[in-house]
From TrEMBL, chain A:
The keyword Oxidoreductase applies. Residues 6-313 form the FAD/NAD(P)-binding domain. InterPro entries: BFD-like_2Fe2S-bd_dom_sf, FAD/NAD-bd_sf, FAD/NAD-binding_dom, Metab_Enz_Cyan_OpOx_G3PDH, Opine_Oxase_asu/HCN_bsu, SoxA_A3. This is NADPH-dependent 2,4-dienoyl-CoA reductase, sulfur reductase. It comes from Desulforhopalus singaporensis. Residues 378-453 form the SoxA A3 domain. Keywords: Oxidoreductase. SUPFAM superfamilies: FAD/NAD(P)-binding domain. The lineage of its organism: Bacteria, Pseudomonadati, Thermodesulfobacteriota, Desulfobulbia, Desulfobulbales.
UniProtKB/TrEMBL annotation, chain B:
It comes from the Bacteria. It comes from Desulforhopalus singaporensis. GO terms for molecular function: iron-sulfur cluster binding; oxidoreductase activity. The keyword Oxidoreductase applies. This is 2Fe-2S iron-sulfur cluster binding domain-containing protein.
Length: 466, 94
């Protein structure tokens, strides 16, 4: 059957592409399934077009182009515009324009990347409020955030991505009316203590410095210690209201970008029951893997930021390592050969990990950001409010899955992707404990919506062939 | 923006024609190029909603594409001649 291959890779971003290239260069037959229509993922989105290249800095553009070129040149089967909704060891179920498809492979590398930490606040469902990453995607699609370039845009939150997006906005002549910082200053100082390690990673640091300089030069009004952000407006955002030093402030905004850092996308692995660990500084769950990305499930690997968020260059290394280890596991290269091929990459990865340890503290999310007012919609899909959740949690339901049953929080089409994080934070706060003590939403397959027809096609008869 | 060589496609959104760069998503075309603001009315609380994440996480970008309803448009690339409709009808009470 032609849908049989050695390795199936889920995700066409830096990690997925690197894994594909390294596995294929070891002699494996590889198939890559990608939600997007061209390889690149979020970081190198549309990199094969002038538009996609225009917002990348020189280093990233070079790296991205080289990666995609190698990928295209190798004999790798590529399935673009394909949504994966089921993964088991040895097989992957997905849907594309022509219907459902079942792929068989000896190993699977999962590389879905990271997503922005979803943080609810009153008014966050209003049109005009988007994530910083979403805003960047609009810019990289040749679009603008507001109709007129003079319309005020407000940035709020904390995290390196916000810095990058702010630079892109300045380059595009956007009127940034304010930057409302919600970061955790004591942790930032702790981050400073680790900063001495960052000399190991001079390239990354100088990039950060250049960005900071641009922001300062852009003269953006920078407000620190901001709390209780809300978006106000009738049918779209018109004002941003916030508290600072116990006082209420208001600012006009045609668009509000909220960003509170980046977390791994764990849906696929959680649906398979893989082992995860809680990071108490960054406040997220991440899958447990070895240096090569092998998870607690035999034959299932994880690569890139979905493993632990280290950034794009680290993702390429993680992908490369996963590809090599799969080749060793399947037996097309020897243990010695694998060690030889991976040595350099392992060293690089360790270096990056140490060098960036300060970022973990520097951009730690402030736990207070989840202390949202009762009326806040937490589950966007089912319109469940913080009040609904707190009430059920205080009645003695300790586990988020019990709270889900009572409130419907997490039962909508996004299957808890957006509300899972705040749900755990709010339930934990209501019981004066930490989110790792209140369980994690159970994710079931299919973990993305699929029509009954396509679902049955995969499990009963022959899926679409091409 | 320096996109002189960028090829484009033309699609219709709510009976309005719009020309946008190839390779971008339908959600990005409607939000970033047409600035239509709200793209759907929420089936549960009936408030106006718009794409929030633009990368397949939030499911707030549901629109009708070529006759098919509830398409997650941030994961669908624009195509020449595509017909997109915003889902603005307030759903009937169940
Ligand atoms: S905009 Fe979030 S899923 Fe499409």
């Amino acid at each position: 059957m032609e849908n049989q291959t050695d390795l199936i890779i889920i995700g066409g971003g830096p990690a997925g592409l690197a894994a594909a290239c390294s596995a294929s260069s070891c002699g494996l037959e590889v198939a890559v399934v990608d939600e997007q229509s061209s390889p690149g993922g979020q970081l190198f989105r549309n990199i094969e077009t002038p538009l996609g290249q225009s917002l990348l800095d020189d280093g990233d553009r070079q790296r991205g182009l080289e990666l995609v070129r190698n990928f295209r040149a190798a004999k790798i089967k590529y399935y673009p515009d394909t949504v994966v909704w089921g993964v088991e060891p040895n097989r992957v179920s997905c849907t594309d324009k022509d219907g459902a498809r079942l792929l068989h492979g000896a190993c699977v590398v999962i590389a879905p990347g990271a997503m922005e930490r979803p943080v609810p606040f009153p008014g966050w469902t209003l049109p005009g409020v988007i994530t910083a990453g979403g805003a960047d995607i609009l810019l990289r699609s040749g679009g603008t955030l507001t109709r007129e370039s003079s319309d005020p845009v407000v940035l709020a939150g904390n995290g390196p991505l916000l810095l990058l997006v702010a630079c892109h906005l300045l380059d595009n002549g956007v009127n940034i009316a304010a930057w409302l910082d919600t970061g955790c200053w004591p942790k930032r100082f702790a981050g400073g203590a680790f900063m001495s390690w960052s000399f190991l990673d001079a390239g990354y640091m100088s990039k950060g410095k250049a960005m900071a300089k641009k922001i300062l030069g852009g003269k953006i009004p920078f407000v620190t210690g901001v709390k209780q952000i809300r978006a106000a407006g009738d049918t779209r955002v018109e004002r941003v209201v916030y508290e600072k030093g116990g006082k209420r402030h208001e600012i006009d905004a045609a668009c509000l970008l909220r960003h509170e850092g980046v977390i791994p996308r764990t849906h696929i692995l959680r649906s398979m029951g893989a082992l995860h660990r809680w990071d108490k500084v960054q406040r997220y769950w991440y899958p447990v893997t070895d240096d090569f990305g092998a998870t607690s499930i035999d034959g299932i690997y994880l690569a890139g930021d979905a493993n632990y968020v280290h950034g794009g260059d680290a993702s390429i290394i993680k992908g490369t390592l996963a590809g090599i280890d799969v080749a060793r596991k399947i037996g097309v290269i020897t243990k010695g050969e694998a060690a030889f091929r991976s040595e350099k990459h392992l060293k690089q990865l360790r270096r990056i990990r140490i060098a960036r340890s300060f970022l973990r503290y520097m951009f730690a999310p402030h736990p207070d950001i989840f202390g949202v007012p009762d009326e806040t919609i937490v589950c966007r899909c089912e319109s469940v409010t913080a009040k609904d959740i707190r009430k059920i949690a205080k009645e003695g339901n300790r586990d988020v899955n019990e709270v889900k049953l009572h409130t419907r929080c997490g039962m909508g089409p996004c299957q808890g992707r957006m509300c899972g994080t705040p749900l755990a934070e709010i339930v934990a706060a209501a019981q004066s404990t930490t989110p790792d003590k209140v369980g994690n939403l159970h994710i079931r397959q299919p973990f993305r919506p699929v029509s009954l027809e396509n679902y049955c096609r995969v499990y009963t008869e022959e899926p679409a062939d091409t | 923006m320096k996109n002189g060589l960028q090829p484009t496609v033309t699609l219709t959104v709510d009976d309005k024609e719009v020309t946008v760069p190839t390779g971008i998503s339908v959600a990005a075309a409607v939000l970033g190029h047409l600035h239509l603001g709200c793209t759907c009315v929420h089936p549960v609380d009936k408030t106006p909603r718009a794409p929030y994440c633009l990368m397949g996480v939030c499911f707030e970008c549901m629109m009708e594409v070529n006759g098919e309803e509830n398409v997650q448009t941030c994961l669908v690339s624009v195509e020449d001649g595509m017909v997109v409709k915003r889902q603005l009808k307030v759903p009937e009470a169940k």
